[in-house]
């Protein structure tokens, strides 16, 4: 099967997204284990702000995938990966361990790479779905970050009594 022809912008975008994904999910090898972790679980330790930062970066990958014309079914899977990542982040400690294993950004890059290798034309419904999905994901990321900040402040108030 012939390689798809990508524009210079698309090639640069894919390279940038690969770097982001690697940094968030696979940047640091764990010696002797053969497993890699990224900054996502470490940044996620920052209550509220960590989930917001990593969630927005994850949504950025979906935004770029939508710009590539990825169909709604694939965008939906990408959104699910982000939701699992962000929602699990609300559970202290357990969510961070889940984040180490889930690697939503690496999964989403694999979906995008698969699409780029065998693109399927998308229609107006796919583009509408992309806009709605991105808006919902951003709202959820912000809500989860706000919830995390509220929980931490609530615990601090209780501890201060």
Q: Poorly predicted ranges (pLDDT <50, ≥5 residues)? A: none
**Major β-sheet profile:** 2 strands, antiparallel
If strands are numbered along the chain, what order do they take across the biggest sheet?
1-2
In terms of structural class, how would the helical and strand content be classed? mainly alpha
Q: What's the helix count?
A: 7
Mean of pLDDT: 90
Secondary-structure element string = HEEHHHHHH
State the end-to-end CA separation. 67 Å
How much beta, percentage-wise? under 5%
In brief:
The protein is mostly helical.
Question: Mind explaining what this structure looks like?
Answer:
The protein has 161 residues and is mainly alpha-helical. The chain is built from seven helices and two strands; from the N terminus they run H-E-E-H-H-H-H-H-H. It has helices spanning 8-25, 39-43, 49-68, 72-88, 94-102, 104-117, 124-159, and strands spanning 28-30, 35-37. The protein has a two-stranded antiparallel ribbon. A hairpin with a 4-residue loop joins strand 1 and strand 2. Helix 3 (49-68) runs parallel beside helix 6 (104-117) and helix 4 packs antiparallel against helix 6. It is globular.
């Amino acid at each position: 099967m012939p390689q798809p022809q990508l524009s210079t912008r698309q090639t640069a975008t894919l390279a940038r997204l690969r770097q982001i994904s690697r940094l968030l999910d696979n940047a640091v090898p764990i010696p002797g284990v053969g497993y890699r972790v990224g900054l996502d679980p470490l940044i996620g330790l920052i209550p509220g702000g960590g989930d917001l930062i990593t969630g927005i970066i994850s949504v950025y990958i979906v935004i770029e995938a939508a710009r590539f014309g990825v169909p709604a079914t694939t965008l939906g899977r990408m959104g699910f990966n982000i939701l699992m990542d962000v929602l699990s982040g609300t559970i202290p400690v357990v969510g961070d361990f889940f984040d180490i294993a889930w690697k939503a950004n690496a999964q989403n890059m694999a979906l995008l790479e698969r699409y780029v290798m065998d693109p399927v034309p998308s229609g107006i419904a796919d583009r509408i779905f992309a806009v709605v999905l991105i808006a919902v994901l951003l709202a959820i990321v912000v809500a989860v970050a706000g919830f995390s900040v509220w929980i931490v402040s609530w615990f601090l108030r209780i501890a201060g009594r």
